[in-house]
Specification:
By secondary structure, the chain is of the alpha+beta class. The protein is built from 1 helix and 10 strands, in the order H-E-E-E-E-E-E-E-E-E-E. The longest helix is centred in the first third of the chain and has 26 residues.
Length: 149
């Protein structure tokens, strides 16, 4: 008898938790967090950009492949653009090597370009992505990790 009561109480508790959890989560949604080094920081919500990324890969022959993408919200974002700048660290500062850009009257776009780089330097990509909705622009600048060649 006591066993049955304990089982009923346990099942009712689990059911109650399942019902209340989504309601609690909706009211207490956390803002997006983007790490900087090992320190997480709060990032403002973007209205027209769902996600954006950039990356740099340099192979053993000095071919640097730059990739970048932006995904807006389908049905919301009217136009997207990317401007990716490959930079070299030389004489204590970052200087432009080359840049790649593209735009489209859509909600997403990707670029993938390859160029040669010189040995003995660090490189990175600094990418500016833009999403537009009814003429309202939203821009974000993102950086790849540094690569030594």
């Amino acid at each position: 008898m006591i066993k049955k009561k304990l089982i009923r109480i346990g099942l009712l508790s689990v059911m109650l938790l399942q019902i209340l959890t989504p309601t609690f989560a909706e009211k207490h949604a956390l803002p997006p967090i983007e790490p900087v080094g090992n320190i997480p920081i709060i990032v403002p919500y973007m209205k027209y950009t769902a996600k954006a990324s950039t990356n740099l890969v340099i192979d053993s022959k000095g071919n640097a492949t730059v990739t970048a993408s932006i995904d807006g919200y389908k049905g919301v974002t009217d136009k997207v653009s990317i401007n990716a700048e490959l930079q070299q660290y030389k004489n204590g500062r970052w200087t432009k090597v080359t840049s790649f850009s593209d735009s489209d009257n859509s909600h997403r776009i990707r670029i993938c370009e390859t160029t040669k780089v010189s040995k003995g330097y660090k490189y990175r990509v600094v990418t500016k992505v833009t999403a537009i909705h009814n003429g309202d622009k939203e821009t974000k600048t993102i950086k790849s990790s540094e690569q030594k060649y």
